[in-house]
């Protein structure tokens, strides 16, 4: 049995803040939703394989329904006709939700400077982390996920209700 200091009642003592506990839990339990359309999707599949093992970072539970996921991984070329579907998938995800743009095509349209290709998914949904490359190696994708985990761990619980965040969502037409 552990003895408490004299006069200590045990009430009101916390070793950490609630924000930090929730951040740590969220960081280690991100549920990814892959939205892969081309060669970057193949690299993402390699990231899920045994050589790189994304599950050691708490993301082994791959979801293929947006309502159960909180991390959207957009990998590959997104056509302008596909943009409304990507936006709908994003809006169906659980809140809070985070987005990683994997590869040059998802980040900026890549080499496809064409009328039919979306020049970056940040035109339709907000992006938290960009992973460069054409296609990026699995190590780059893992680095992007680790960067997102840092963002998730340090994000305040009040950020999503702040005026700045609400203004950002309004700029994307999201209420």
From TrEMBL:
It is found in: Cell membrane. Its cofactor is [4Fe-4S] cluster. Its main location: membrane. Residues 39-148 form the NADH:ubiquinone oxidoreductase-like 20kDa subunit domain. Keywords: 4Fe-4S, Cell membrane, Iron, Iron-sulfur, Membrane, Metal-binding, NAD, Quinone, Translocase, Transport. The keyword Iron-sulfur applies. Pfam families: Oxidored_q6. Its EC number is 7.1.1.-. It is a peripheral membrane protein. SUPFAM superfamilies: HydA/Nqo6-like. [4Fe-4S] cluster binds at residues 39-40, 105, 134. It catalyses: a quinone + NADH + 5 H(+)(in) = a quinol + NAD(+) + 4 H(+)(out). Binds 1 [4Fe-4S] cluster. Belongs to the complex I 20 kDa subunit family. NDH-1 is composed of 14 different subunits. Subunits NuoB, C, D, E, F, and G constitute the peripheral sector of the complex. This is NADH-quinone oxidoreductase subunit B. It comes from Nemorincola caseinilytica.
């Amino acid at each position: 049995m552990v003895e408490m200091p004299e006069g200590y009642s045990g009430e009101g003592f916390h070793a950490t803040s609630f924000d930090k506990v929730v951040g740590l839990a969220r960081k280690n339990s991100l549920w990814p939703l892959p939205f892969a359309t081309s060669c970057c999707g193949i690299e993402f599949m390699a990231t899920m394989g045994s050589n790189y093992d994304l599950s050691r970072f708490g993301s082994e539970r791959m979801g293929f329904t947006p309502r159960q996921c909180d991390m959207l991984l957009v990998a590959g070329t997104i056509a302008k006709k596909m943009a409304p579907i990507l936006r709908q998938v994003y809006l169906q995800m659980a809140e809070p939700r985070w987005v990683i743009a994997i590869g040059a095509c998802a980040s900026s349209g890549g080499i496809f400077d064409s009328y039919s290709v979306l020049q970056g998914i940040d035109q339709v949904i907000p992006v938290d982390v960009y992973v460069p490359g054409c296609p990026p190696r699995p190590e780059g994708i893992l680095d992007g996920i680790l960067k997102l985990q840092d963002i998730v761990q340090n994000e305040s619980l009040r950020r999503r209700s702040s005026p700045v965040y609400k203004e950002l969502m309004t700029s994307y037409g999201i209420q």
